[in-house]
């Protein structure tokens, strides 16, 4: 097998697809950020509204209870019940203002541990409700500049039914604010964790989603680069031989030169035919012509056509029937046999081949120098002439033909120390048994 090396051609497909994966990941992150930010904002707004509703309901309950606990006896306001009732002594501040001749005065105060609220901020709504007799809900600032919700409701004299004063209740905003801040912090941390997971997952999904296209495009790009090199070599040889023949005054050497030119032209023709067939299949202009045929007979025909003196081939076959495209499989076997003859010998010694055919498998061994270690990596899906990790366009085409049929091409070391190429093909399925050739 060939051991020529050349500088690897830089490929653009991997870089372009890597950039595409990055852009897909960024786009996914942007969409997730926008979605999470929107949902987080909606959640915070809804939480704020629900918190305000709960706070308003608690203020209304406390104010109603405080009004019910007030009573008059002999025109005197009794506040005793306010000192013992849990509702009036709870976490909600309760302030009772009794109406006098011209104004209201504070007669009961239960601050409930609230931040200090300026007396004027409590007196103003109490005075207004005493005059109007209508409930009043508003927000004021405490000494810490936090907003505190107030509810002022009137209470009446049971005998005269006149507005006798005002009950002002104040809710503690700190528990609700802490819960709101904890929700915001939880949304922020959860969103950050989700974004990290989504970013990693999105990148993995983008990488996995583009991997088939990346592999196909990368193999196509490498195949084209290898094909260009493979075609350039015989063209260069033909040109050099022709120029040498024109400048050589010895006419006796021209027939030998022409034979070399013919050999290079045949190699070039074979490469062009193989590339055209592969291009037509890849483009969809030609489909695999699957039919049952004898793999052992096809291998014997290929060996008889290609292996000529002084080269020797020992063919060991067993009846083997496969369902595939005979033209493509013939081309693959021709490439394998030709490659073995070309590189499977030492010096000028004739090539000795051993071709073994078994059901679903063709094994071609030579007695040459063997394969370099870097070409035996079974994980490599391609073989390239002269590259640092490949061993010939012909093997590339043979591997591609095997893959199109659901098989594979494996390279290894023969028992005698040479190289071994094993082409595996699926055997004939049961639904084709009726058309099995004799």
UniProtKB/TrEMBL annotation:
The chain crosses the membrane at residues 20-46, 183-206. It is a multi-pass membrane protein. PANTHER family: SENSOR HISTIDINE KINASE YKOH (PTHR45436), SENSOR PROTEIN QSEC (PTHR45436:SF14). SUPFAM superfamilies: ATPase domain of HSP90 chaperone/DNA topoisomerase II/histidine kinase, Homodimeric domain of signal transducing histidine kinase. It holds the Pfam family HisKA. Residues 226-429 form the Histidine kinase domain. It is found in: Cell membrane; Membrane. It comes from Rugosimonospora acidiphila. Its EC number is 2.7.13.3. The keyword Ribosomal protein does not apply. This is histidine kinase. Keywords: ATP-binding, Kinase, Membrane, Nucleotide-binding, Phosphoprotein, Transferase, Transmembrane, Transmembrane helix, Two-component regulatory system. CDD domains: HisKA (cd00082). It is an enzyme of class 2 (transferase). It catalyses: ATP + protein L-histidine = ADP + protein N-phospho-L-histidine.
């Amino acid at each position: 097998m060939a051991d020529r090396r050349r500088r690897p051609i830089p490929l653009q497909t991997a870089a372009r697809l890597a950039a595409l994966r990055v852009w897909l990941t960024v786009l996914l992150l942007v969409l997730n950020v926008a979605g999470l930010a929107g949902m987080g904002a909606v959640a915070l707004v809804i939480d704020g509204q629900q918190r305000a509703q709960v706070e308003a309901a608690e203020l209304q309950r406390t104010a109603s209870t405080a009004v019910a606990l007030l009573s008059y006896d002999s025109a005197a306001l009794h506040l005793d019940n306010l000192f013992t009732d849990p509702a009036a002594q709870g976490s909600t501040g309760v302030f009772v203002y009794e109406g006098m001749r011209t104004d209201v005065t504070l007669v009961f105060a239960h601050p409930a541990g609230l931040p200090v609220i300026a007396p004027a901020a409590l007196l103003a709504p109490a005075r207004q409700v005493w005059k109007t007799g209508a409930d009043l809900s508003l927000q004021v600032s405490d000494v810490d500049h936090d907003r505190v919700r107030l509810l002022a409701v009137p209470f009446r004299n049971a005998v005269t039914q006149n507005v006798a004063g005002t009950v002002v209740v104040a809710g503690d905003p700190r528990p609700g604010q802490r819960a709101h801040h904890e929700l915001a912090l939880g949304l922020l941390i959860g969103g950050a964790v989700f974004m990290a997971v989504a970013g990693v997952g999105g990148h993995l999904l983008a990488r996995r989603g583009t991997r088939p296209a990346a592999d196909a495009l990368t193999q196509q790009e490498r195949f084209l680069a290898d094909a260009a090199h493979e075609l350039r070599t015989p063209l260069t040889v033909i040109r050099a031989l022709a120029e040498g023949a024109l400048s050589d005054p010895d006419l006796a050497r021209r027939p030998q030169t022409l034979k070399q030119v013919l050999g290079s032209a045949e190699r070039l023709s074979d490469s062009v035919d193989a590339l055209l067939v592969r291009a037509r299949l890849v483009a969809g202009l030609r489909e695999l012509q699957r039919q049952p045929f004898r793999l052992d007979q096809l291998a014997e025909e290929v060996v008889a056509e290609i292996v000529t003196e002084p080269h020797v081939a020992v063919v060991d076959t067993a009846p083997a029937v496969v369902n595939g495209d005979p033209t493509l499989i013939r081309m693959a076997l021709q490439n394998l046999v030709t490659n073995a003859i070309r590189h499977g010998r030492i010096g000028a010694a004739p090539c000795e081949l051993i071709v073994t055919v078994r059901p679903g498998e063709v094994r071609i061994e030579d007695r040459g120098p063997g394969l370099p270690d870097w070409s035996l990596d079974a994980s490599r899906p391609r073989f390239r002439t002269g590259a640092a990790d490949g061993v010939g366009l012909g093997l590339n085409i043979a591997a591609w033909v095997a893959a199109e049929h659901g098989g594979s091409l494996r390279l290894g070391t023969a028992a005698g120390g040479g190289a071994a190429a094993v082409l595996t093909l699926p055997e004939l399925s049961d639904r084709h048994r009726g058309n099995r050739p004799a």
